[in-house]
Task: structure prediction
Amino acid sequence: MKTIRYSLLAGLFLALALRANAGVITVTSLSTILTEVARQIGGDHVKVVPLVKAGMDPHEYEPQPDDLRAASDSQLILATGKHLESYLPKLSESTGGKAAILQVGDAFPSLKITGEEAVKTQGEDPHWWHSIPNMKVAVKVIRDEFISLDPADGADFEKNAAACLANLDTLNKWARVEISKLPRDKRKLVTSHDAFQYFARDYGFTIYPIEGVTTEDEPTSQKIAALIDTIKSQNVKAVFFENIENPKVIQEITKETGAKVGGELYADGLGAPNTPEGTYDGMFRHNVTTIVDSLQ
Amino acid sequence: MHGSPLLRTAGVLLLLLLAGVPLYRMTHEAAAAIVAPAASAPAENSQVRLEVAFAQKPVHFQISYLGKPIWESDNVTGLTAEKGIAMNYPKEGVDLEFNVTWPAGTPLCAARLSVAANEAEPVEKTLWGTGQIDDVLTLP
Result:
């Protein structure tokens, strides 16, 4: 009888101890995509401070003093990785290395890019979130990190992550059916910034980028001339511009080639909050619908 | 010298009518020429052999290409079926949407789709589902 009583007490103390460790994890996010994933998995157990917000260009973002303070106060910094955030070493140094930096993109293989732009990202394409299989890996990586920081709330993280994964499966199935309506010989994507390599791999598109991988690059006149030749020879129906870039160059190309402006694609993150494109699901559906409708 | 105004008006009308016939023909043919390409269907330049095989007899299956059904059956009589169709088959390959519905209570089941274009070696893909399958198969 005594043994049972002691066991119950020990169990109670263990539960209380685990509960005491269960707090709110403070996370700083350097990506609108990762902000959403962290909030969905973390629920009430995680406070996410987004430093890169909707409409900001992650290629050009540099942390400000306030941002550094926020990062210093957090337990975890979520970064896209694959050399998108060139300031990470400085961020780590200025925060004294207190917060762990999780470069989520390092969890899966990179697609390679070539040309002069590749120097900036060491040859890696950082836009991995345009692949739903990559997103599923990202969900698991973040879930596991949260569990290691707060094991007491692990069951909630598991449950929330499972819901995220199920939603991603549904989204992927929808995308495959939608894209199947577009003949494979018409899957030629001309975009104002080479951000859709992973999307192209998953759904059978060929990419013809107007400029390199970062939005800082301005295309040369030779590059535009070469692209015009490609659009004409490949009979490309539409070209696309992304949400944060001046579409002047594209207008010039469409005038020369007769291709139409396909519409706005979200290349570097989510749309404005409280709009359909302000969520990953909405952003992805928008991109797929815009591409399929324009290239038909 | 100038003749009757009625006769002059009739003459002008006659000239207009004579000029109108070739003008009508020219514009009518031009309009037909413009409309023709838009009305033409996509090139159906490949003979494609489709075969389906099921582990258990379904109640319904459908294969769609570019969002339109190309083979549908509500009355499946056996575990296999085949059909030849003419369709556009680009060298980049095709995506076929494959829907299968089995009777309620059917456990996990498989369906295979085999596609052979222009008498080439067939390409096979197998899908699994409980009760139903709705997926896209990419074929080279």
